Structures are given as C-alpha cells and as structure tokens.
DNA sequence: TACAAACATGAGTAACCCTCATATTTGCAA
DNA sequence: TTGCAAATATGAGGGTTACTCATGTTTGTA
C-alpha cells in the first residue's frame, strides 16, 4: 500500500488536505510533516502539539504546513485515517475466513488481544482515539470505521445464524464493537492489572453475545 | 510565575475554586457565573464558550471570574461535579433496596431508561460528558463517579451471589457501568431510532451479564 | 472607627492558530 | 533552450483567546 493520496474527504468541512501534493518534492515534505506531528503527539499529546513546532521539526515553514493542511485538526485526522485504513484491512482478513462459531470465537479473541496490545504500545493511536469525543471530524471517522468493522462482524453472524433478524445482528455487532473500543480506552486509563481484567471480562461478555445470540 | 498558594484539590492539578467564596454576595455571584456558563454550553457547547462571554452574561468582570475559577476547564468541572453528586444519590437509592434478581433487573432497566432520557434532554450534560476523554480532570471525575456507581451495583451482586469471586463481580459491575456510559454516548450521536435499538441491545446484554453471571 | 481580609475591576500580556503578499521552483509546450 | 503558468515555499503579521495583576472597593469585626 503506497500512494494513498487522500485527496478529499466525505461531506462538509471534514478535514482534508487543502491541496493535494502533486510533486515528488512536496509529497516527501508532507510525509515529514506527518512524521513530525506523530512524534510530537507521542511526546506530549495532540493537544499540546504546536503547529510551529511541527513545522520546525519537519524542516518546513509554517506556511508550507498550511499549504497542505487546512488546520491543526486536519493533521491529526490524516494520521487517524491511516490507522483506520490499515486496521480495517487486518480486521477484514481476520473475519473473512470464519466458517463456524468456534472460528469466530478464535478470531474475535485474537482481534481483541491485538487491539489491546496496540493501544498499550502506541501512544499516538491512544491519543488520537482519546480525542475522538471532542472533535467532530474525528468522531465521524471513528464512527465510520467502527461501522465498517462491525459490518464485517455482522456478515459473519448472518452466515452463522441465517434465521436471525439481520437488523438485530447488525445492531449487536455494532454495539459489541463500540463496547470494545470503549473497553480499550478504559483499560489503558487504569492500572495495568485492572486493565487486563477488564479486557478479559469484555471478551467474555462479547463472545457470549456473539456466540449464544 | 506560577500560582504559589492555590488551595489545591485532590491529587494533581484537578480543577478547583481558586478561592472559596465566603461572603453571601460572592456566593451569589459564583452561582450566576455557573448559570451563565451552563446556558452558554447549552447554546454552543463548552468548546465555543468564551470566558469573556460568561463574565458578561453573569454580570461580573473577567477578573471576578478568575477569582473563583483557576481556568476555563474548572467551570465545566464544577458543573460536572454537580451532576455526579446529584445522580449518585439517585443511583444509590435505586439500587439500595434491591433484594433479588428480579428486583435488580427492574432497577437496572429503569436506571438505563432514566439515563438515556437525561442524555437526550440535557445538552449541557451531553456536552460535558462528551469532553470527558480529552480533559484529564473531567476524565478523573468521570472515572471516580463511575467507580462509585459500579460499587453500588457490585454490592447488589455480592448480595445476590455470595459464592462468586468478589473481585470478578466488581470488575463486571465496573465494566457494565462503563459500557453503559459508552452506549449512551453512542446512542445520542446516531439517529434516534438506531440509538433506541442500541440502548435496548445494551440493556439486554448488561442484564444477562448481571443476572446470569 | 479602624483596619485587614475578601472581593471587584478591566486594561494589558502572552500564546497560539492561521493568512497572505511575495518569492522561488517545477513541469512542459513551443 | 526558453518562456510561462501552476505548484510550492516563506515568515512576518493579524486576530482571537485564556489568563494576570496592579489598583480600587466592600465587608466583617475588634
């Protein structure tokens, strides 16, 4: 996966590059800007990230920064979008091959573990998804991402339980997924040991919901 | 150049009045400030709320505002604290009298409904708890509140299932409660109809976890 | 009545996001 | 190669906002 372009984004004033970099030179510079932002977020959080600092660390002027990102949130949004794109492929692959209840249990359990480990290890991801409630564009992105992932899950459920009401299955899948994200956010904001317990409890709860109907 | 003698508050830099109003006059003024802030949050959200506007609407100077609140977040925090104090009493009362599984199901179901209606009706509450992820002090308050409420729930569970592992029950209660708050936030950010479905699904899921172990 | 502590004020400060006029570089057609 | 428009680069400065502080006023009380 390269290129990515990220030309425009859905509806309204969702953050998007003000101008897509078309030359090699500027594409590299945009990469440097994103890398600088990522590093700063890891160090101090996106709230404390200063645009001037991003520019300085990327070795560009403040004006260049705004040439490609309409505002501060757009940078965070761009980073978030990369995470969702990557993880969706991973999730889709993990769930696509599921054929029976046991397989679902296995795959889901592994996904939860992977996500938890990712949240623990990636300060940038953690920071970005923490700000999800406050920022409208981020919230939209997270909702869309969650919906997409929940649909993968719902597809499996429909396969396993063809007699069940499809809408109910979709609701369950969406809820279970969102609860998972909430559980992760909770788990990483408490002591490690309690976090582990909470994730384990979530997993049990979710699996029961998914498997026993 | 930092505040030397701030009265301080529980651990860390949790927001608190810089100086407690001791005179009748100032107590009234603080009330007016909070009322003004509440109205502005309801109108435009706490992010768009301007300190100057709060002062103007409360009929006080900007300096007076900062006499009692160390910063902007402290005002939001003070409002949030009122909500938690009020609701904790309500929740405690609802759960205290529960004697059997059926009673728990009844009480919990009612609590969920009340909370959902509250979230739908109260823009201030909605706004404040939305910002919970971004603001550290608010997050602490919400966590503490959630822990307290979860303890009421855990106490009931321990009464109903004295043989079960207490720590597991506490974990379950805390998780279920946090999932509930997440479900509410989710529900109010989608179409009303889908929100209703999600809340209903959460209720089913939570009740199963609470009642069936 | 005196006086210290509490309270009130608002012009001023600092920090930050973002703009824009201007300069430079690139791609490409003639 | 040369000319030129589009793309890219720059950073001083505009505008907004949270917050401070020196100064003045009110209140409780000895």
TrEMBL record, chains A, B:
Keyword DNA-binding: yes
DNA-binding region extent: 50-69
Biased composition (Low complexity): 15-24
InterPro entries: Homeodomain-like_sf (IPR009057), HTH-type_TetR-like_transc_reg (IPR050109), HTH_TetR (IPR001647), TetR_C_22 (IPR041674)
Domain HTH tetR-type: 27-87
GO function term, MF aspect, one: DNA-binding transcription factor activity
Region listing for Disordered, in residue ranges: 1-27
PROSITE patterns from the UniProt entry: HTH_TETR_2 (PS50977)
Protein keywords: DNA-binding
Keyword Cell membrane: no
Annotated Polar residues bias: 1-14
Protein name: TetR family transcriptional regulator
């Amino acid at each position: 996966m390269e290129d990515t372009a990220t030309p425009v984004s859905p509806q309204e004033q969702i953050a998007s590059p003000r101008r897509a970099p078309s030359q090699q030179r500027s594409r590299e510079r945009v990469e440097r800007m994103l890398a600088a932002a990522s590093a700063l977020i890891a160090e101090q959080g996106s709230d404390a990230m200063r645009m001037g600092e991003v520019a300085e660390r990327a070795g560009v002027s403040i004006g260049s920064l705004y040439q490609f990102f309409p505002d501060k949130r757009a940078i965070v949004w761009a980073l978030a979008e990369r995470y969702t794109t990557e993880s969706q492929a991973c999730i889709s692959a993990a769930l696509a091959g599921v054929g029976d209840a046991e397989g679902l249990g296995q795959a889901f359990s592994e996904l939860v573990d992977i996500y938890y480990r990712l949240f623990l290890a990636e300060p940038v991801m953690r920071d970005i998804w923490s700000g999800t409630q406050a920022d409208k564009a981020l919230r939209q992105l997270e909702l869309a991402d969650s919906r997409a992932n929940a649909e993968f899950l719902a597809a499996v459920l429909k396969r396993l339980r063809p007699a069940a009401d499809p809408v109910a299955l979709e609701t369950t899948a969406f809820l279970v997924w969102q609860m998972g994200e909430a559980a992760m956010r909770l788990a990483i904001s408490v002591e490690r040991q309690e976090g582990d317990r909470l994730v384990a409890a979530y997993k049990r709860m979710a699996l029961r919901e998914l498997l026993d109907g």
